[in-house]
Amino acid sequence: MQDLFSSLGLTPDLTQGGTLAVRSPIDGAEIARIAETPVSDMPAIIARSQTAFRAWREVPAPRRGELVRLLGEELRAAKAELGALVTLEAGKITSEGLGEVQEMIDICDFAVGLSRQLYGLTIASERPGHRMMETWHPMGPCAVISAFNFPVAVWSWNTALALVCGNPVIWKPSEKTPLTAMASMKIMERALARFGDAPEGLVQLVIGGPAVGEALVGSKDVPIVSATGSTRMGRIVGPKVAERFGRSILELGGNNAMIVAPSADLDMAVRAIVFSAVGTAGQRCTSLRRLIVHHSIRKDLVAKLAAAYASLPIGDPRKEGTLIGPLVDAASRDRMLSALEQAKAEGGTVHGGAAVEGVAGGAYVQPAIADMSGQSAIVKEETFAPILYVMGYETLEEAIALQNDVPQGLSSCIFTLNLREAETFLSAVGSDCGIANVNIGPSGAEIGGAFGGEKDTGGGRESGSDAWKGYMRRQTNTVNYSAQLPLAQGVKFDI
Ligand code: NAD
Fold it and tell me: Domain named Aldehyde dehydrogenase: which ranges (predicted)?
């Protein structure tokens, strides 16, 4: 472990002697003690970010992109080590730890191209001799508050875009995963050193819990707050940022569903269901939590799933072949077990779901399938664990109504070979989620698309498409190159 730490620049002075204990979900053992950022330091940190902003906004965007290109290079060089640290600190299996770093590399590539594409529109003016256009400008410090389950990727989605858009970044990672954050900052520092003349304080890291986050959320000098985590957190953060007319990008909980129609390719559906329901031990915001299956195939599908679930290797996420690692901690396992009790009390039949001995000290569970007679209260909650609730339907209309009848609106999908069903699901009367797929599970989004969801998921968008606009301010410009001063709407005001 010490070798891994030192290969990422995490020297003992950084990982020992602090007040924040870091535990590995693999065996619950303490792996580091990190110094926390005193809340009293936050005003100075924010002031440094403001100073950095004044310099960075003047750097041409393609040059800003060069920093992100270097970050991508450094991430490529450190991929194996950072991926291994994600596994150690967040408990992801090896390929998912590496996949998370790959996502960081992908967003860097995307943002480098974007740095030459921050474009506005030219709009027809009603006045002769006038040109109207819109331009996009940097906004200022962007706070990134991130969750434990994507300990580094979420930072990179925000940081790569914020930097090319001309904004400094202050990152507050989850208090459960500060080590991967510190390692990512070391990688960033290498990119900054190679870049040469970036302003001091352009990318900063603060360590701690909600109080440190709240210092960012409450500051007028932090115009953008991108917060990823539970809906409970978003309900606190969103109104606080709104109160000061700041901009928030909220990426909150999901309760993602798959509709399986009679025409579906069931073998393909089973593969998609298993990956999205049990991958990352059900701890993705996009994990599949609800299966809405046509009555005619329900029994068949549940039997196939039960067979697939029976053979899933659960255990040490570092071991080759393991598909299900630990939950983040014992509290998370307790929440899963109590959700299953509630499912039973609400009429469900539960298969699996027992706590298992993976590695001593870790919280390992068998993934569960809960056959429900309807969408009861527990099904509408996001339990951050591998529970798959199964419900039946008769008509597509009914299935879509069930899919939409939860507070969250992140990701959704339908398995069907029927074009009318697929298109209806994607139409205005279909899924109400930010992400809707056909013949693909709800998790594992690509960087090129905008990522985020509606309703209690918070409404924010990150990553691809035009999500960059969330990190810039829009300005409408009208230029008069005539010798007259005509007023809009034909108003006369002669003096
Ligand atoms: P969490 O809400 O407990 O914590 C998330 C972050 O918010 C942490 O950094 C935490 O310190 C901070 N925080 C908590 N209260 C705060 C406050 N009052 N002010 C400022 N910061 C505060 O979430 P978690 O358990 O780490 O992560 C799991 C949750 O995150 C799930 O609900 C999951 O769906 C969600 N998530 C969503 C997305 C998405 O893109 N929609 C991605 C990943 C995770």
Answer: 18-476
